[in-house]
Amino acid sequence: MKFIVIFLFLVQFLWGSDATIEVIKGVEGSVPLAIEDASPISNDMSQKFTKMLAADMNVVSLFTVDESYATAPFDSPTPALNHKNAQFLLRYRLLNDGAGGVRADIKLLRNGADVFVKSYILKQSEMLVFLSHSIAYDINGKLGGSSIDWIKRKVLFIRQSGPKRSDIVAADYTLSYQRVILSGGLYGFAKWANREQTDLYYTSLLDFKPTIYKMNLSNGHKEKLISSDGMAVCSDVSEDGKRLLLTLAPEGQPDIYLYDLNNQSKTRITNYSGIDVNGQFMGDGSIAFVSNRMGYPNIYSTRPNSSAVTPLVYDGKNNSSLSSYKNLLVYKARESSGTYNGNSFNLHLLSLNSGAVKRLTASGENDFPRFSPDGEAILYIKQEGPRSSIGVIRFGVNKSFAFPLKLGRIQSIDW
User: Fold this and answer.
1) CB-side neighbour CA atoms (13 Å) of 139
2) Which of 307, 263, 272 is nearest to 292 (CA)?
3) What 3-state DSSP class applies to 181?
C-alpha cells in the first residue's frame, strides 16, 4: 500500500495517440508552402505521406503550410492549380523497392526554382513517418532554422495493457509509429540509457522487490541493476551516460541516490522522512528534485555530499513532475481558479540563472514534461476535458503543437 501511495504521488494524469497535428499556440510562419505528390501511383500510403510532411513542416515553423492534397509531375516547375499561390513547393515521389522498402525523391522549389533535392532510402515502409521527420530536419537545416535534432529521435513510453500488465513502447514523437519493446509484465518509468537510444532502463514491478533493469534494444539482453523495497526508479541519466539518479526506498520512504555505473556504487543524496523523488542533473552540478518536506510537493535542489536543501520555486502549493536541461527547469504547477480561469495544471519554465519563470501552457492538465536532449523542445502529456494529447513546445519560437491520443492510459514518457 505504501508503494501505491508513493507511486500515485509520482504518476498523475496519464493518457493514450493519433498523428493529427493541431497548432495550438504561436503564430505560423508567413511564407506559404504546399506539398504535392509526384508518386507514379497515388495510393493510401502516398496520400498519408502528405499529412505526415504537413505535420512536420508545421513543427519546423518556417512556413504557413497548405495541407490540401494535390498531385503534380515531379520535375514540373509549376504548382498544381489549388497551390498556385504557394511560394514554396515540397514535392515527393515514393517508389516501392519490391523488398518492403521505399525510395523517396524529394524536391523543394521556391518560385519554380530548385532549393533542395535529395533521395532517401527507407528499408522498412512501416517507419515511413521517420522518413518524413528526416526530410523536415534536412529542409530546416538547409533554410537555417533553429535546431530540431529531437525530431528524429524515438519517444519511449509505458502504457497499461490490462490488469497488472503494461507495455514498453518506442515511437516517433507523433506516435504514428509504435514498436512494443516489452509486454506482458508490469513495468514503470522507462528511461533512455544513452543519447544513441540503444539501451533503456525500466522498473519491473512483478519482482519480489521493485527492480531496475537495463535492456539493449538490438539483442533484447536484460541486465539487473538494483532492487529496493518500496520503490526503485531511474529518473535521470548523466550526459555521458555514466551516472544515474535513482529514487529508492530501502527504509520505506523514497530518497534520491546517485548511482555510479563504473563501480556500481550508490551514494545517498537526500535523507528525509517524507517523500523525495524525481532527481534531475543540473548544469551547475546540483541536483533538482521533488519533495513534500514543506507539507506539499515543491521543487528543491541540493548537491552531492551536502546536507543543504534549497527551494527553487516559491509560488504555488503543488509543484512537481520536473525535467531539466543545463540551468533550465520545466515543472508542473497546480493553479487555482483565483489565479487563472479554472483549476488547471500548467507547465512553467524556470531559469536558474535569472530566476525568471515563464508559463508555457494556458489550460487543461499538463504533465510529464521532458526536455529534448538539445534543450530546444519540451514533450509532455496534455488533458483538456475528455481530450488527451501529446504536446510539443518549441519555446524558442514560441509555438506549441498537440497530437490527439488514442492509446489508453500512458504511465510515463521519455525521449
Assistant:
1) 31
2) 272
3) strand
Going by the DSSP 8-state scheme, the letter that residue 126 receives in this structure is: G
What's the pTM value of the predicted model, to 2 decimals?
0.86
pLDDT for 315 equals 86
Q: For residue range 87-116, what is the model confidence (pLDDT) as tens digits?
A: 999 999 999 887 878 999 999 999 999 999
Q: Do 317 and 184 share a domain, yes or no?
A: yes
The fraction of the chain above a pLDDT of 90, given in percent, is: 69
Q: Which CATH number belongs to the domain containing residue 80 in this structure?
A: 3.40.50.10070
**pLDDT tens digits, 239-267:** 999 999 999 999 889 999 999 999 999 99
Domains in the chain: how many in total? 2
CA distances from 210 to 201, 230, 339, 371, 410 (A): 13, 7, 39, 26, 19
Domain that holds residue 12: 2-19+154-414
Note the pLDDT of residue 224: 96
**What is residue 2's DSSP assignment?**
H
Q: Is residue 127 within 8 Å of 166, Cβ to Cβ?
A: no
Q: Are residues 139 and 52 in the same domain?
A: yes
CB 403 within 8 A of CB 52: no
Based on the fold, state whether residues 237 and 178 are members of the same structural domain: yes
Paired strand residues for 391: 380, 402
Distance CA 270, CA 264 (A): 19
